[in-house]
Design goal:
Elements: E1 6-11, H1 19-32, E2 36-40, H2 44-48, E3 52-55, H3 82-94, E4 99-104, H4 106-118, E5 123-127, H5 143-164, E6 167-172, H6 179-188, E7 192-194, H7 202-215, E8 220-225, H8 232-243, E9 250-253, H9 265-283, E10 289-294, E11 297-302, H10 303-308, H11 315-324
Parallel strand pairs: 1-2, 1-4, 4-5, 5-10, 6-8, 6-9, 7-8
Antiparallel strand pairs: 2-3, 10-11
This protein binds 6-O-phosphono-beta-D-fructofuranose.
The site of 6-O-phosphono-beta-D-fructofuranose has 10 residues, from loops.
């Protein structure tokens, strides 16, 4: 087994609260184990264009509470090409970086997987995305904070919805996955969740809303996962207005608000554990695995499985939203 001396860290794709806590944990665990650390800026751009800075333990001081990522992030087009990845590998060799820890979502993992197949460099990934849509882990870094942001917003929307006795469609992110919408609905007490994993029956939705108002509800809140194919919350509100003009429906799109903010305790702890585990994994000779948390334990999933395995939405959660909205 080759001994690792210098670890590079990067964050890529959409930022997620807790990425800084992960950067801190990776850096400090690496230094604790006598490894050198390099921060790679703007995700894979930093590799392709050689934008890297040496890190010491002070480089990650006072960041655990900050949202975003101090390393910056990007979706790098150049890394998609063979030439771009060749440049990246040359830059890594020139800097004597002999292992990488990448933090991001499925796009980041796909990039890492190809890079690791082409080059002899051990890579460990941490799942950092508010979408919670990666296989191999029960939960991703940033998801809990985003959920908390959603419920805070929905609580406020409910005040005005109740005052006006209105129906609101609140659109949340998710990148074609319904975790934020479904669990956001459970946590905020929304009447329904519209998720890409299930067909939406507009008649059934209208009937559910009608039943609620008839029974004495003063408002109806429907969480809608973003979905370019259906037009998301705006598309749904449009259909409702056309078919059921009696509803004075309104739309709120939470958008990038969900990506910001100070990470919750749950995200800070998850990111710290995963960051330290990434260094343990590299020191133990692991390569090309994503660190995950399953049933409270740290587990390793090969990149190939993490990007191809679809994490199923829990049927019991779909049922729970229905039961609790009667
Ligand atoms: O993957 C995180 C995410 O916030 C998705 O939920 C969303 O679809 C996407 O990123 C938005 O990306 P961008 O910030 O590039 O518009």
């Amino acid at each position: 087994m080759r001994r690792i001396k210098k670890v590079g860290i990067l964050t890529s794709g959409g930022d997620a609260p807790g990425m800084n806590a992960a950067i801190r944990a990776i850096t400090r665990s690496a230094i604790y184990n006598n490894l050198n650390v390099v921060g790679i800026r703007r995700g894979y751009y930093g590799l392709v264009f050689n934008d890297m800075v040496p890190f010491d333990s002070g480089s990650v001081s006072n960041i655990i509470q900050q949202g975003g990522t101090i390393l910056k992030t990007a979706r790098c087009k150049e890394f998609i090409s063979d030439e771009g990845r060749f440049e990246a590998y040359k830059n890594l060799c020139a800097q004597a970086i002999d292992a990488l820890v990448v933090i991001g979502g499925d796009g980041t993992l796909r990039g890492a997987r190809i890079f690791a197949e082409e080059n002899d460099i051990p890579i460990v990934a941490l799942p950092g995305t508010i979408d919670n849509d990666l296989g191999g882990t029960d939960i991703t870094i940033g998801y809990d904070t985003a959920l908390n942001t959603i419920i805070e917003a929905v609580d406020k929307i409910r005040d005005t919805a109740t005052s006006h006795e209105r129906l609101f469609f609140v659109e949340v992110m998710g990148h074609m996955a319904g975790y934020l919408a479904l669990n956001g609905a459970i946590a905020s007490g929304a009447e329904a969740a519209i998720i890409p994993e299930r067909e939406t029956e507009i008649d059934q939705l209208a009937e559910l809303v009608r039943r609620g108002f008839r029974k004495s509800k003063n408002s109806a809140i429907v969480l809608v996962a973003e979905n370019p194919a259906t037009g998301g919350a705006l598309g749904l509100a449009q259909r409702i207005k056309e078919e059921f003009p009696e509803y004075d429906a309104r739309v709120t799109i939470l958008g990038h608000l969900q990506r910001g903010g100070s990470p919750t305790a749950a995200d800070r702890i998850l990111a710290s554990r995963m960051g330290a585990e990434a260094i343990n994994a590299l020191m133990a000779g692991q390569r090309n695995v994503m660190i995950g948390s399953q049933n409270g334990r740290m587990v390793y999933t090969p990149f190939t499985m993490a990007v191809t395995q679809k994490k199923p939405i829990k049927e019991t959660d779909i049922e729970l939203v229905k039961i609790l909205s009667i």
